[in-house]
Amino acid sequence: MYGLKPLSEKIPAIADQVFARKFVMLGRILTHWQDIVGDDLANKTQPVKLHYRKAKDGSKRATASLDISASSADATMLHYRKDLILERINQIFGDRWITAIRFVPSETAEQDFKSPPKPRKTLTENDKLYLSEVLESIDDPELKDRLEKLGQAMLQDRSRNSKQVI
């Protein structure tokens, strides 16, 4: 049958080609954020947007600028490290793809972006025994390992929540 197809069927394919590199790069920046800005500012700042610009001079080399969300005090600290941050980012990508950094005010100026993880309680012997009995019929070692980690996390959360109610 020949007919019109909805535009919504083609949008993902078109957008995938256009935005794939941009979001892969932002993901890499997020993954290496602590190495890029340093331990002291990694929890107080975060990359929020990449502005991708095609080359105007006919060369195939595109550039980008990065927006970093930070409080005004942290933005001042980052401003002094701007060249170092650009160097570290471009080491990750292997070329000078990101050429500029802009600091934007954060909505949570006084809060850290990542709160420290709450320590998990160790499982009781009964919980460990229960989990091993539930998982003993699973043959695939990788699946079994992942399910065991999930089960441990669920049991730890359950024990933490039940103690808060008391």
Can you tag this structure with a few keywords?
GMP Synthetase, Chain A, domain 3; about 170 residues; three-stranded mixed beta sheet; alpha+beta; 3 strands
Brief characterization of the structure:
The chain has 166 residues and is an alpha+beta fold.
Report on this model:
With 166 residues, this protein is α+β, with helices and mostly antiparallel strands. It folds into two domains: 10-105, GMP Synthetase, Chain A, domain 3; 125-165. It has helices spanning 11-31, 33-37, 39-42, 72-80, 82-93, 125-135, 141-165; strands at 46-53, 63-70, 98-105. Strands 1-2-3 form a three-stranded mixed beta sheet. Helix 6 runs antiparallel to helix 7 (141-165). It is extended. The termini are far apart. The mean pLDDT is 77.
Percentage of residues in strands: 5-15%
Number of domains: 2
Structural class: alpha+beta
Low-confidence stretches: none
Q: Helical stretch count?
A: 7
Distance between the termini: 65 Å
Percent of residues in helices: 40-55%
* CATH fold label of the largest domain: GMP Synthetase, Chain A, domain 3
Widest beta sheet: strand line-up = 1-2-3
Order of helices and strands: HHHEEHHEHH
Rough outline: extended
Q: Whole-number average pLDDT?
A: 77
CATH class category name of the largest domain: Alpha Beta
Please outline the major beta sheet.
Answer: 3 strands, mixed
Query: What is the CATH architecture annotation of the largest domain?
Result: 2-Layer Sandwich
The total count of strands amounts to 3
The Rg value, from CA coordinates, equals 23 Å
